[in-house]
From TrEMBL:
The protein, known as: Lysozyme
Keyword field: Antimicrobial, Bacteriolytic enzyme
KW Cytoplasm (keyword) present: no
Tagged with keyword Protein biosynthesis: no
InterPro entries in the cross-refs: Lysozyme-like_dom_sf, Lysozyme_dom_sf, Phage_lysozyme-like
Source organism of the structure: Marinobacterium halophilum
Amino acid sequence: MYQPALGAVIAQHLEQLEGRIAHMYRDTRGYITVGVGHLLATEQDATALAFIHRDTGLAATPDAIRQEYQALSTRPYGQRHGASSFAAHTNLRLPDAEIDTLTRLHIDRFGHELLSLYGPAFDTFTDPIKLALFDMIFNLGLTKLRRGFPRFNQHIHNRNWTAAAKESHRLGISEARNRHVHNLLSG
């Protein structure tokens, strides 16, 4: 599907675009998130992770994690409230090793999903094309990528990278990120 070295490049690429945040925060849509864009859809998702207390380094209890999750869910969010603005309202941190593990799991899962969407041809795509596709699926998820971008997907299947680049624009993300994916696709 992709070489281990490409996995490291994908992780670095996603970290540059998503950021790497050790504390929980609300993303621009209001979802509680941590690490490199890892969605915590429920309190249970949060308590499944090995958070530690910022000041002591001791493991956080499930109750402490739930309390912080609940407290953050009432905080304002949006374009004016970047991830770092939530640091002052959090006491828990996710260790780097945990963030790295979550990122690798995302990359593996998305790699399998991209292979299911584009078939064996995906393995033959150039690294820039793969980076663009990983960014698309990371941001959109498989369902939105499959259903919301039918012309884009048809162009990918046809290896018409220029046309795919023109169809890659997503709403709700920065224009710089959209341009970056466009440039990866159009070479």
